[in-house]
Amino acid sequence: MSKRARRAAPGPGAARPTVTVCRGCCCGTPKVPGLDHAAQLRDLRQALDGTATVRGTDCLDACERANVIVVQPSAEGRRAGGRPVWLGLVNDPGAVADITAWVENGGPGLTDAPDILDLYTFRPSRRVQAELHDA
After folding, report:
1. Which H helix or E strand runs over 45?
2. What is the pLDDT of residues 112-121, one digit of tens each?
């Protein structure tokens, strides 16, 4: 069973994209040195205010890829074929800026992610994906 807290996740019909930022046992802690974790989450919230829902969660069970961010499409993006995009090792401000710009332009299904984000993209296990969906 996952250690992360269960929180209501926006449903597949969310009007805007959702950015879920892991802040669990590895992500958001000194285990990932040289990064102001609180500032990363705060900056995402400020930059995407009114554009996306930004939420923190305790653990996404992909600790080997800390810090993990998941970008979920809006309802319109999902209808256009967008699916959640998992990004790992998001440990520098440039990556956060690229994620922010992508989400501001529509996010999954509506706008292609910047090519640089391919370096961060990964596919979690089905169990982990299901837990995020059911949260």
Report:
1. helix 37-47
2. 999 999 999 9
